[in-house]
Amino acid sequence: MGRHVLEPANRVALDDAYQVEVFTHWIKSNYEVSANTEVDYGASYAYLQTLTNYNGSDKADDHVYRLTVPQYIQAVEFVYHMGMTVNYIDLPSSVIYIDTNGIPSIDDDWLLYDIGLNVVDGYNVAEGNPRYTSDDGILYNLDKTEMLGVPTGKTELTVKSGVKKVVLPYQNKIKTLLLEPDENGVFPEVNYARLRSDCRIVVPDEYLSQYLSAESDILQRRGFVVVPKSSLDQSEDGGYILRDGFLYTTDYRLHQIMRNSVHFVALSDDIKGVEAAAFVGFEDELSVIMLPKSGEVPDFDVGCFDGLEKLTVACYSEKQRAAMEQYAKSSYCNIRIRMVEEYEGYSYLDTDGGPILLSVPDGIEYFDGTFLTPDGTKTAATIGDRAFLDSWALKWVVLPEETKGVGFESFKGSYNLQGVLIKAKDAFLISDGAFDECSTLRFVGSNAQKCLLEDPDFSLKADEYADTFLYCLSGSEGYNINWTQFVPEADIASYDIVDCGGTKVLYGVGSDGDEWLALRAGFTVDGEVKLPDSTLEIFCCAFMGTRDADYDFFTVNFDELKSLGWIDQMAFRDSYLGKDVVLPADITAASKAFFNCDKLESIVFPGNAFDGVNISDEALSDCNNLGSVTFGPMNSEGA
Q1: Distance CA 468, CA 119 (A)
Q2: Alpha-carbon distance 502 to 530, whole Å?
Q3: Residue 600's pLDDT is what?
C-alpha cells in the first residue's frame, strides 16, 4: 500500500497501522501553521499528508506506549472520537505541524470532547526538522522561543528566559509553573485557562510586582497562588493570592494594595489579618476602611495605620468597635471609629466627608442619589464598594451634585442598567469595575470638570446593540480618550437625562438651557417616544438598537419636532422604529440613519431636494419591509 508524497517524489511503503489523509493548512515561510483557517495572505496554501489515526497491534484502549511517526508524513492531527494517548512520540524531520492541544474533557470544550492526541511523557524530534526541536521531552519551535508541546504527565514546568509563548495542553497536571522574564522584564504568553486551579506560579522576587500587574485579570479570575522564587522551598503554603486588586497571603492576610488608586477598602469576611505595610503608598487618599460584615475582628499588625491621618474605620459590631478603640489607644494612631447604620434595607456610614451608601434594598429601578434614614432622606456623598452589586431591577441612575464618587464594582452586575448621569460640577471619582457587567448600559454622561479614574484605561463594552457611550464636557480633565468631548462651539453646557415617555434620553443642553442634542436613548421603550420640541439634532447612534419592550414597533413624535434638522449617522440603525414615519420638512438624514429598521413600512419627507431635504444614499438601506418613500411636491423653482 502506498501514498503520494512531496519527497522523494515517488511511492513509498506505509504500514497499514497508520491512517493518513490529506488536510489543508495555511503555512508561513518559517513552516508555522497559520491560526487563520480562512485566507491568510501572508502564508501559502498547502496540502499536508496528515496522520489521523493509528491501529497497530501495540494499541490497547486507545493507548500506545511509543508512537513513531514515519518519515514523509507532514502533519499529525488525531481528529476522530476518543483520540489517542501515547507516552512518547517520535517525530521525523518531515513533520511540520502537530496538534499539541491534547484531548479536551467535556468541561474544556464539548465540541472537541475526546478528540486529539495526548502525549504523557515526551516529544522527540529528529535532526533536520525545519519547524520543531525537542528538549527534555518538551516540543519547541526551532529557535526555542515557543514552547509548543508540554507532556501532560509533567507536574513541574520551568519556562526559561527567552521563551515568548507557552502552549499548555488540555488536562495537563502542572502544579508548579516557574516563569522567567526576558531581558526586558517581559513574561511569556501563557494560555492560563488550561492550568489547574491549584497550580502555583513562581516568578523571580524582583519581578513579582511587575508580573502581578501584567497578569492581574487572569490571576484574579482563576485564583492562582503566585510565589516569589526565593520562598519556593520554604513552605507549601507560601505565596500570594490576588483578589479584587488586593494581594493576600495564602492564609488571607492583606499584604499589599495592587490598584492604581484606592479611597475606600472593604475587608472581606474571610480575612484573617492586615500586615504592617498593607496601606503604604496610599496615605494621602485612603479615607475609609470597612471591617468585615461578619462582625469579626481581623488581626492588625502594629503600624498598619501609620500616616493615615484622614482614616475612618467602619464597624458592623460592638465587638469590632471595642477592639478598634483599644488598638487606637495602644498604637497611638489617629483614626475615627464609626458604626455602620441600617434602615429600611439601606446600610450607610456617616463620615466627615458625608454619608457613604453601602448597600440598598432589592427592587430599586431608579436611583437619584438619596436614601432613607431614621432622620429622613440623605444624599450619598459616595456610593460604596459593591453597593448595587447584581441589582437586576436597576435601570437609571442620576447622581446629584453632592455625590462625589462611585466605589469599587459599585454597580457591577446591574444587568438592566441603561443610563447613568453624573451631575457633580467639580471632581468625581470612578473606581475600578464600577460598571462592570452592566450588559445593557447605553451611556454615562458626566458634568464633572475633573474625573479621577482609578483605571486610567477605563472603558465600557456592553453587548452588540448596547455599546456604552461616554460623554464629558469640553475642557474637562482626567477623562481618557474613550470619552467624547464636544468642541466649545457646539454649545454643550451640560448633560441631562430627559424623560421622553417611553424611555429616557441623554441630552446635550445649550447655554440657554435648551435640550437640543439627543445623544443616546435607553435600550427598551414602551411604545411612543416624545422628544422635547427644542430638539435640533438626533446624534450618531442615539437610538441604535433601541427596541420596543413588547418587541413591537415604537414611534417618535416627529410631527412636533419643528426645529429638528439633522438625523445623524446610524441614529436609528437596527432599531424598532416604525411603522409609518413622517419627518419634518427640512431634514438631513445621514448615512445609514435608518439602516435595517425592519419595522419601518413607509416614510414621508414633506420637503424635497430643493426645499432643504438632504438624504444620504444609504440612509434607508436594508429596511427590508419599507414599502414606500414619499417626497413633498416640487416648488416652482425646482419643477
Answers
A1: 46
A2: 7
A3: 95
CA-to-CA distance for 526 and 226, rounded, in angstroms?
51
Question: How many Å apart are CA 13 and CA 632, to the nearest integer?
Answer: 81
Q: How confident is the model at residue 39 (pLDDT cuts 50, 70, 90)?
A: confident
Distant-in-sequence, close-in-space partners of 272: CB < 8 Å, separation ≥ 6: 251, 252, 253, 298, 299
Please state, in angstroms and rounded to a whole number, the distance separating the CA atoms of residues 155 and 274.
33
The mean pLDDT of 38-56, rounded to a whole number, is 88
Helix, strand, coil share (%) of the chain residues, nearest 5: 5, 35, 60
Residue-wise burial string across 451-484, b where 16 or more C-beta atoms lie within 10 A, e elsewhere: bbbbbeebebebeebbbbbbbbbeebebbeeebe
CA atoms within 13 A on the CB side of 390: 0
Specify whether the CB–CB gap between 480 and 455 falls below 8 A.
Answer: no
Task: Tell me the per-residue pLDDT of 290-323, one tens digit each, with 9 for 90 and over.
Answer: 999 999 999 999 999 999 888 999 999 999 999 9
Q: How confident is the model at residue 234 (pLDDT cuts 50, 70, 90)?
A: low
CA 299/CA 297 separation, integer angstroms: 7
Q: How many residues does the chain have?
A: 639
Angle ∠(177,182,187) on CA atoms, nearest 5 = 45
| 352-393 pLDDT, tens digit each | 889 999 999 999 999 999 999 999 999 999 999 999 999 999
The CA R_g of the chain, rounded to the nearest whole Å, is 32
Sequence letter at residue 149: G
DSSP code per residue over 2-14 = EE--SSSSS-EE-
Q: What is the pLDDT of residues 446-497, one digit of tens each?
A: 999 999 998 888 887 655 555 889 999 999 999 999 999 999 999 999 999 9
Which ranges in 503-597 belong to alpha helices (H)? none
Asked if 48 and 22 count as a contact pair (C-beta separation under 8 A), the reply is yes
pLDDT confidence of 235, banded at 50, 70, 90?
Answer: low
- String of b and e for 343-364 (b: at least 16 CB within 10 Å)? eeebbbbbbeeebbbbbbeeeb
Give yes or no for a cis peptide into 8 (omega within 30° of 0): yes
Residues whose CB is less than 8 angstroms from the CB of residue 458 and which lie 6 or more positions away in sequence, other chains included: 430, 480, 482
- Residue 423: how many CA atoms within 13 Å on its side-chain side? 14
CA torsion 65→71→72→77, rounded to 10°?
10
Q: Report the C-alpha gap between 41 and 463 in whole angstroms.
A: 31
**pTM for the structure as a whole:** 0.80
pLDDT at 633: 76
Sign of CA dihedral 193, 198, 202, 208: positive
Q: Please report which helix (H) or strand (E) contains residue 475, including its range.
A: none
